[in-house]
């Protein structure tokens, strides 16, 4: 999926650079730029923090597993891919009861108790979540990491492979540069090395189809290299059973993943659009942060009328509705009104909004459903 509404994942402590803050090029092309790649506190913890600052070029990774990985790549992984967002619980994910139950049993428990879940009971190393966009695949990934007390790494595969990442997509500039200069496969290697150091780890790869599609084979040398490296790492994670790394792939286009890659994701789960009850839970969760005036019947009415909406569509609807009371004011009023005088979100406001088309069309949905047959859901 490509939506990231309500993600607080970029909210971090002082050690993390935001997406909009000063960009440090990962691939410096001049000597002095090389020096400007400074180490932050987190990176120092990996490298061993005892050295005086300013002696970057003499710093050597102290962890064996980071040997041969470029420091700037490690820093990029830690700054842009490692997710320091808030902890999540299963209640944050509305509906999807089947997926949640299955995931708890086959993934989370084994990750929490590797001593019990050995051999035949061993946890899967790969999990594929597929289905329409905006249905909670990313939320599930975060939740798995939280609940299994694992470090969460999250990256969109398109940022590694695509030269032309559109505006408005989840794009990380630094990674974009990596893709542009054809160093995506180094990034993949660094990602798994850092994950190994920080295990137990969950590595979430959104839009995994762009990494593993049949097309990426012949097309560009660069994307072929990234794909090969990814498969090598995936197989490494699967065979080194003492490593506790779960790779989760998410995709809206399961049919584009080739057979060889598909086989590596032993467990596959379809993540469908939310039912009416789940839509209700999403709305209630979001509205609970605001003042609102809505009877249970009115809420049910809205939830019936939004059949076909994804979770992300529901979140958008709530966001729009929350602006309703503000839009009815003129500028003078906005300037002077006190926060508790802002009118509540009402049924009337919500009723004006649900006529918008759902982001997933019926035609798309057919594709997922035939995709489901094609994929064979394995749990
Ligand atoms: P995906 O990864 O499937 O494209 P996300 O997990 O990024 O979708 O969901 C996007 C946003 O939509 C979430 O941040 C959340 O606000 C809302 N959302 C989608 N599905 C759910 C769900 N099942 N429960 C709660 N919120 C959801």
From TrEMBL:
Source species, domain of life: Eukaryota
Domain (AAA+ ATPase) ranges: 123-275
Keywords: ATP-binding, Hydrolase, Nucleotide-binding
Location of the region described as Disordered in the Swiss-Prot/TrEMBL record: 1-37
Keyword ATP-binding (UniProt): yes
Polar residues bias locations: 1-18
An MF annotation (GO) of this entry: ATP hydrolysis activity
Family affiliation: Belongs to the AAA ATPase family.
Protein name: Fidgetin-like protein 1
Taxonomic source organism: Mytilus edulis (Blue mussel)
